[in-house]
From TrEMBL:
Entry-linked PANTHER family: INNER MEMBRANE ABC TRANSPORTER, INNER MEMBRANE ABC TRANSPORTER PERMEASE PROTEIN YEJB
Transmembrane segments: 9-30, 131-150, 171-195, 220-243, 278-305, 325-351
Name the record gives this protein: ABC transporter permease
Domain of life, source organism: Bacteria
GO BP annotations listed: microcin transport; transmembrane transport
UniProt record similarity statement: Belongs to the binding-protein-dependent transport system permease family.
Alphabetically ordered keywords of this record: Cell inner membrane, Cell membrane, Membrane, Transmembrane, Transmembrane helix, Transport
GO cellular component, one term: plasma membrane
Length: 362
């Protein structure tokens, strides 16, 4: 197992390098850049973080971002200013030289400073991390807390009325878009048209620092309740059906019939023998499920509930062409995803020591 883990860690380097090469090359063909964003701001076209939804002035500015010289010429800006801005952002160097320098800095975990926020990328990511971790962690935990008991119950009562109507509920929940459900929660419970039970925005209240420890805990869960529910609505569907099918497969195996023939109670057979084997793929996949919830679908939820997390950070960086934030977060999250894949394999072995990845590779 140690040799397999070592090989996997060694593969992280070329894989991460390939991810960075592809994305860096793609960015070179995207029209516009940080210089154009600065010029648009100087000419009164608005802040680089405003107008994401479009509009007359922003649309006009976007159309002019295809060429530095044409844009500067139409606005009457001196070429010296354009050259100075390119030098400030390091865009006066050839792409290959910029890429090599960037990778060299990243190997030292130096991700640079945001073009427009004047904050280190690492500090910026750490500042936004609590929101995304809150959404990802609690959504994953709640999904598992719902999925495992419901999946076991559905497997034990396969074909019953309970199995039928819960399957209908699962399909309906999976079909509802998370953003639509989030809006529904706001309308119903956040003062939209009915009840003002939960706060409309933010992760904590304005008087957070003045609250006691218990009050802070309560305030945190009060704010995070609706976003987590909206994120979880479709997450437990796959896990529930996976749990059910895993239990059904194990229940039909010979060792279960043998255990029952020996006079073991149904509870002992179910939780002493079946549970460990059936839960292998479900429990061992927890890191991958968490990282999936952590990365995907957070932008819309964060926007609807006015949460300042990594989803909005990445979106704003892409729109503003904030290259240090774009590539820095891409490197960090790519490394996290690759490491989590290795952790998932380790979890499989811990849950079931019979699994040997080295023999499978051989």
């Amino acid at each position: 197992m140690a040799a397999y883990i070592l090989r996997r860690f060694l593969l992280v380097i070329p894989t991460l390098f390939g991810i960075m090469v592809i994305n860096f090359a793609l960015v070179q063909f995207v029209p516009g850049g940080p210089v154009e964003q600065i010029i648009a701001q100087m000419q009164g076209s608005g802040d680089v973080f405003e107008g994401f939804a479009g509009g007359g002035g922003d649309a006009g500015a976007t159309e002019t971002l295809g060429s530095n010289d044409n844009y500067a010429g139409r606005q009457g800006l001196p070429p010296e200013l354009i050259e100075e801005l390119n030098a400030q952002f390091g865009l006066d160097k050839p792409p290959l030289e910029r890429f090599i320098q960037m990778i060299g800095n990243y190997l030292r975990f130096d991700f640079g400073e945001s073009y427009f926020r004047k904050i280190d990328v690492t500090e910026l990511v750490m500042e936004k991390m609590p929101v995304s971790i809150s959404l990802g962690l609690w959504s994953t935990l709640i999904a598992y807390m719902i999925s495992i008991p419901m999946g076991i119950r559905k497997a034990l009562s396969d074909g019953s009325r309970f199995d039928t109507w819960t399957s209908g509920m699962i399909i309906a929940a999976y079909a509802i878009p998370s953003f639509l459900f989030a809006i529904l929660l706001l309308v119903l419970f956040a003062g939209g048209s009915y009840w003002q039970i939960f706060p409309l925005r933010g992760l904590t209240s304005d008087n957070w620092e003045e609250l006691s420890l218990l009050a802070k805990i309560g305030d945190y869960f009060w704010h995070i309740a609706l976003p987590v529910i909206a994120s979880t609505i479709g997450a437990f569907a796959t896990l529930t059906l996976l749990t059910k099918n895993s239990f059904l497969d194990e229940i039909k195996k010979q060792y279960v019939m043998t255990a029952r023939a020996k006079g073991l109670s149904e509870r002992r057979v179910l939780y002493g023998h079946v549970f460990r084997n059936a839960m292998l793929i479900v429990i061992a996949g927890f890191p991958a499920v968490f990282i999936g919830v952590f990365f995907s679908g957070s932008l819309i939820i964060e926007t609807i509930f006015s949460l300042d997390g990594l989803g909005r950070l990445g979106f704003e960086a892409a729109v503003a062409r904030d290259y240090p934030v774009i590539f820095g977060t891409l490197f960090i999250f790519g490394l996290m995803s690759l490491v989590v894949g290795i952790v998932s394999d380790i979890m499989y072995v811990l849950v079931d020591p019979r699994i040997d990845f080295e023999k499978r590779e051989g």
